[in-house]
Amino acid sequence: MVDGATILQATKRPRLIRWSVALAALAGAVVLPQFVNAYVTEVATTALLYVVLCLGLNIVVGYAGLLDLGYAAFFAVGAYTSGILTAEFGFNFWLTIPVAMAAACVAGIIIGAPTLRLRSDYLAIVTLGFGEIVRIIARNLDITGGASGLVGIERPEIFGFKLMQVQHFYYAFLVLALLTAFVCLSVERSRMGRAWFYVRYDEDAAAGIGINRVSAKLQAYMMGAVIASVAGCLYAAKMTAISPESFTFNQSLLILLGVVLGGMGRIPGVVLGAILVALLPEVLRGAGTYRPLVTAVALLAIMLFRPNGLWPDKRV
Amino acid sequence: MALLEVRDLRLSFGGLKVLHDISFSVEKGAINSLIGPNGAGKTSLFNCLTGFYKPKGGSIRLGGRPIMGLAPHRITALGLARTFQNIRLFKEMSVLENVMSGQHCRSRHGIVSAILHLPSQLREEERIRAVGTHWLDFVGIAEHAHRLAGGLSYGDQRRLELARALASTPELILLDEPAAGLNEREKLDLVHLIRRIREETGITVLLIEHDMGLVMQVSEKIVVFDYGQKIAEGRPEVVRVDPRVIEAYLGSED
């Protein structure tokens, strides 16, 4: 028998270190724009966008174990909903967020309800198709601006202050990333979060112990969709112009890459993976035309030597 | 009225008949057993009772309520829990998290209240953890609560699976070969544990078991299966000398 105090100490110390590292990283992120030029801030903003998207996809892939190859579709649903409502109908940006969330939920149910009964590989193909369908619809509708996209999206205002510069959006994405991490952490440690892990590790045992697997999967899928849609709203506001080419299969793959690269299922790993996905193309800019080759070799090396990701879940 | 009432249950896979018109019942508060040679259809019957297989006909009633055709999670929520023949734990999760899964169908807070950290959600989490700890304590593995389930010894994994099923606060628990792979000492502990389940919680037990000694020791009634048919039913001392049962196990002389 180990007495309570020893267990408490053993679990407390790493937790203290973990929180110190997280706080230091946060402090670094807060002051970063004061020390670097606009280009670096721009790249860092992209990194934060990927943090939000990867955390969202991690709920689907990492928690519930569903392979989703069309996640960018929900990102697109958010961006287009917000973009159309502000540019065409003069909506206030902040009001478009709940509408986009609702739209993502509906899209999640439409695609998820019939397909989440399928086992993983079939689901992957259906989501792949869904991603392409959304992109092609956006290309062909008038309201989405067709292939050339949607322009003239309003910049958001907050308490009379208009978000204009790269720095402003950097902080907006930082707040969104923190909020997403908080939401993920809260849910991960709750009843529904555990249910996702039960379903991921043994679907039949989960059903046998009283978990509605289809409902659990659908909720993971919808929650992932909602997070992507909120990221999409802010992305549209930052870019002021969006086109279907921002939401390709490649985009879905990059987000998935971030989740797998860092170590799916665990928030610090996913954040690390997301940052790497955003930084890699910039760091490798010097490699010129060899860039795709160098990227591929680097990724293969990581997957060979750290198959569970760079910062894996201790459970696996 | 019997707690579990099975009437004329039929199951087939394609042209293969697995269960032929099975009828039996389990009284509330009883410890009953299903025995039979390998392939007799015992686990298939469990899978029908728990909703994993869809029977072709007949009826299954739990406390008077028809449960046939319901999804497995609905049946668990109505008070019928099970363990698996080959242990099916969530090996990558902690022992406590495993046993907490049993309370899923007895709790209700979802994503939104978890994000908002509602007081009622926190209380519910507290309760789920307390119930889990209680059952770990009941089966005697509370000191391993924070270890990974996959790292437990085989005997403790069996106990954990039992604790997990008990944590869903069932009325009836189905144990699929709980003694498989246990040594003599562990089997004795199991007999003790099964008796405690009934005496301390009032939960009814139905088990599938190959170990005749154990079956004869714990059960008041035994149902014997062979080739998907019920060939005998009754008290252990009656079943033990039934010629049909002896034939099923040892073969007939001619």
From TrEMBL, chain A:
Keywords recorded for this protein, A-Z: Cell membrane, Membrane, Transmembrane, Transmembrane helix
Subcellular location: Cell membrane
Main location: membrane
Gene Ontology cellular component list: plasma membrane
Membrane spanning residue stretches: 16-36, 48-77, 89-113, 169-187, 220-241, 253-280, 292-311
GO molecular function, one term: branched-chain amino acid transmembrane transporter activity
Topological category with respect to the lipid bilayer: Multi-pass membrane protein
Protein known as: Branched-chain amino acid transport system permease protein
UniProtKB/TrEMBL annotation, chain B:
Gene Ontology cellular component list: plasma membrane
Occurrences of domain ABC transporter (ranges): 4-252
GO process terms (BP): D-alanine transmembrane transport; L-alanine transport; L-isoleucine import across plasma membrane; L-valine import across plasma membrane
A GO MF label: ATP hydrolysis activity
Alphabetized CDD domains for the sequence: ABC_Mj1267_LivG_branched
Protein origin, superkingdom: Bacteria
Keywords on record: ATP-binding, Nucleotide-binding, Transport
Gene3D superfamilies: P-loop containing nucleotide triphosphate hydrolases
Family: Belongs to the ABC transporter superfamily.
This protein's name: Branched-chain amino acid transport system ATP-binding protein
Organism, scientific name: Mesorhizobium qingshengii
Upper lineage: Bacteria, Pseudomonadati, Pseudomonadota, Alphaproteobacteria, Hyphomicrobiales
